[in-house]
Amino acid sequence: MFTTKPTLIYVCLSAFFLEGCGSLTHSEFEAPQVSIPNSWQQQKVDTSTNIDPWWKKFGDAQLDSLIQTVLEQNSDMALATLTLQKARLQAGLSATDRYPDISSSTSGSKSKDLKNGDTSKSYSTSLSISYELDLWGRVSSEIDANKWAAIASEEDREATAQSLVSTTASLYWQIGYLKDRISLSTKSIDYAKQTLSLTENQYRSGAVTQLNVLEAKRSLAGQESTHSELLQQLHEAENSIATLVNQPLDNNVVAINSLPDRQIPAIKAGVPSDILVRRPDVKSALYSIKKALATKDATFAAYLPTVTLTGDLGSSSSQLSNLLNNPIATLGAGLVLPFLEWNQMKINDKIADIDYQSAVVTYRQTLYQAYEDVDNALSAKEQYDYQATKLKEQYDAAAAAEKIYASQYRYGAVSIQDWLDAQETLRESEESLLENRYNRYNIQATVYQALGGSDIAPVMN
């Protein structure tokens, strides 16, 4: 019987001391330089601004609960989690290449002497070792590539989570907005029916012509048609919510009855541009560059000479003692010269370089898109805030005008078409005011998402 532990340690240490050429093929990473337009650099955010988790700033417990449910049960989130788990396993699998491949076998036999009847037993144990010296850093580069791929996958999962949060909030508010629109439409239809009834009475008394009645009917029919469209939009929005949470509609996933009318949270002026590096898509693109760089190094190193130590160690031989004295000579060094495949090496190296350059371009494109997203969102927020004031003024004027037209029509001072037009103007003004509030909620969420933030994806077990 023998102990293999000291032997293995000695073999491994000897192999590691032989390495050291890997630095020759290791490329140092340098972050790509990106020129930012001056107009974007002017959009700044206070470093003290805390936007995590941003949706809780709206003070809506039901929205908070819905988002938590989506993050825990959504199918896209589950797929992103599985992708990350696979990437981590692949990274762990590549890391095993750092260590020797070891296998062992044990055999035994029993024999009996035919002359004297004595029985003898014999046992043998063998240990096989195979280890590739990472002379040029190929193994370490492959490990790095898989590591960065796993980290990039983690950011992709985070991007999925942040996108789901924004989508969930938007759908939640859309349902409230549509229910408010339906409520307005119901009231407007009731008013149109009253108008039609009044006109029919006037027609029977000879005060107006049949044309007035037809105009009133046309207005009512148009509003009822629009009402039907709103009901369909609400049905589709509720189905979308059900899909997000992987639950059937009859579970009453969301029960918002109206678009919230509370104060929309403000964002402090002066957000630093470097806050965008918190965005998961930007971080993922950066990690993809590091992965491509490591893959490029591994591709080149694969065409350099490799040395593999292999051997069989038996417990009944003198190899064990020889191994301790001269491990490389005992195991045997196999030298492979793949650099003879020169043309293939050059092609594969160029392909790897193109992949790296593509990753750099993607990173710049992603960063530019991040700046564009923030700039557009902040600009839209400013415009929606301005429009809110003007739309309120428009609604107040339309409401006052409709009352005057209603009074004048009853006294025959204006035509029914004038009154119907005033009703339509008032209805559109009220709908525009409601839509503006919905847009201001949405754009606030868009600003938060564009700025990025701390990780919100559920912690993996």
UniProtKB/TrEMBL annotation:
Per its UniProt record, what Pfam families does this chain match? Answer: OEP (PF02321)
Membrane disposition:
Lipid-anchor
Which GO molecular function terms does the record list? efflux transmembrane transporter activity
Alphabetized, the UniProt keywords read: Coiled coil, Lipoprotein, Membrane, Palmitate, Transmembrane, Transmembrane beta strand
Top-rank taxon of the source lineage equals Bacteria
Give the matching InterPro entries: MdtP/NodT-like, OMP_efflux
- SUPFAM superfamilies, A to Z: Outer membrane efflux proteins (OEP)
Q: Region Disordered: list its residue ranges.
A: 98-123
Could you confirm whether the keyword Ribonucleoprotein appears in this record? no
Q: Which residues form a coiled coil?
A: 220-247
Q: Does the keyword Coiled coil apply?
A: yes
| Subcellular location per the Swiss-Prot or TrEMBL entry | Cell outer membrane
GO cellular component terms listed in the entry, alphabetical order = cell outer membrane
The family line of this record is:
Belongs to the outer membrane factor (OMF) (TC 1.B.17) family.
The record ties this protein, via PANTHER family, to:
CATION EFFLUX SYSTEM PROTEIN CUSC, OUTER MEMBRANE CATION EFFLUX PROTEIN
What's the protein called, per UniProt?
A: Efflux transporter outer membrane subunit
Per the UniProt record, the source organism is Vibrio viridaestus
From the broadest rank down, the organism's phylogenetic lineage runs: Bacteria, Pseudomonadati, Pseudomonadota, Gammaproteobacteria, Vibrionales
